[in-house]
Amino acid sequence: MSKAEALPLTEAEVRPCCPPLNERPLTAEEADEAAAMFKALGDPIRLRLFSQVASHVDGEACVCDISDVGVSQPTVSHHLKKLREAGLLTSERRGTWVYYRVTPSVMASLARSFSISG
């Protein structure tokens, strides 16, 4: 089985959830989308899991490599599901293991939300 290689994103492919917070007030839809991401990251276990995936070699982590966060495996699976539902992670099953990646536009979107223009 060959491993697919991720292509780098161009600026045009990054769809931010919302404009920088100091640019203009958020619309209701933008606020809902951003709040879902921030809510998912607001849990310390989910934030640690997200960080482990984002900082893992090649930006991809097997669930077997990120399960040591002080909670049971079913709880880890629950938190990873919440991160996927919030659009922060994607997953792919390979054999018996599931591999996680940060959704490509998420890091740029989160960074852009807090960037200060002018």
UniProtKB/TrEMBL annotation:
<keyword id="KW-0804">Transcription</keyword>
<dbReference type="InterPro" id="IPR051081">
    <property type="entry name" value="HTH_MetalResp_TranReg"/>
</dbReference>
<dbReference type="InterPro" id="IPR011991">
    <property type="entry name" value="ArsR-like_HTH"/>
</dbReference>
<keyword id="KW-0238">DNA-binding</keyword>
<protein>
    <submittedName>
        <fullName>Transcriptional regulator</fullName>
    </submittedName>
</protein>
<dbReference type="InterPro" id="IPR001845">
    <property type="entry name" value="HTH_ArsR_DNA-bd_dom"/>
</dbReference>
<feature type="domain" description="HTH arsR-type">
    <location>
        <begin position="26"/>
        <end position="118"/>
    </location>
</feature>
<keyword id="KW-0805">Transcription regulation</keyword>
<dbReference type="InterPro" id="IPR036388">
    <property type="entry name" value="WH-like_DNA-bd_sf"/>
</dbReference>
<dbReference type="InterPro" id="IPR036390">
    <property type="entry name" value="WH_DNA-bd_sf"/>
</dbReference>
<dbReference type="Pfam" id="PF01022">
    <property type="entry name" value="HTH_5"/>
</dbReference>
